[in-house]
């Protein structure tokens, strides 16, 4: 009985693993995995903070309308300032295209404001 249950469980789990491998991340998921940590709006995102310090009107990537696909591809492949380059095995050309589409569909964020950490008397 235990062997039958174990075999049944093994077959079920292998089916789940195969199904998960077949599912491909979309532009939003890849953005969340590869870009959001540095490029989301607000404090704690180094690339956004750097662009905000440079006076860019929309420092976060989401909702940027001045971003061209070829520029994004070049930066992703070659890196820029502290951003490392991404190899084609990490992000394919199609995945970069999907991330770009996700960025362009988004609404621009409002500029971040400083968080007040002390209470006024």
From TrEMBL:
<dbReference type="GO" id="GO:0009055">
    <property type="term" value="F:electron transfer activity"/>
</dbReference>
<dbReference type="InterPro" id="IPR009056">
    <property type="entry name" value="Cyt_c-like_dom"/>
</dbReference>
<keyword id="KW-0349">Heme</keyword>
<dbReference type="GO" id="GO:0020037">
    <property type="term" value="F:heme binding"/>
</dbReference>
<keyword id="KW-0479">Metal-binding</keyword>
<keyword id="KW-0732">Signal</keyword>
<dbReference type="InterPro" id="IPR036909">
    <property type="entry name" value="Cyt_c-like_dom_sf"/>
</dbReference>
<keyword id="KW-0408">Iron</keyword>
<dbReference type="GO" id="GO:0046872">
    <property type="term" value="F:metal ion binding"/>
</dbReference>
<feature type="signal peptide">
    <location>
        <begin position="1"/>
        <end position="20"/>
    </location>
</feature>
<dbReference type="Pfam" id="PF13442">
    <property type="entry name" value="Cytochrome_CBB3"/>
</dbReference>
<protein>
    <submittedName>
        <fullName>Cytochrome c</fullName>
    </submittedName>
</protein>
<feature type="domain" description="Cytochrome c">
    <location>
        <begin position="22"/>
        <end position="107"/>
    </location>
</feature>
């Amino acid at each position: 009985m235990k062997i039958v249950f174990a075999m049944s469980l093994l077959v079920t789990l292998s089916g789940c693993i195969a199904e998960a491998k077949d599912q491909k991340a979309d532009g939003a998921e890849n953005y969340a995995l590869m870009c959001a940590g540095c490029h989301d709006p607000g404090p704690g995102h180094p690339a956004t903070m750097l662009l905000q310090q440079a006076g860019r009107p929309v420092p976060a990537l989401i909702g940027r309308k001045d971003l061209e696909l070829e520029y994004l591809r070049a930066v992703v492949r070659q890196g820029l300032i502290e951003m490392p380059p991404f190899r084609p095995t990490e992000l394919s050309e199609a995945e970069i295209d999907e991330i770009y589409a996700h960025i362009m569909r988004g609404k621009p964020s409002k500029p971040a404001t400083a968080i007040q950490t002390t209470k006024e008397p």
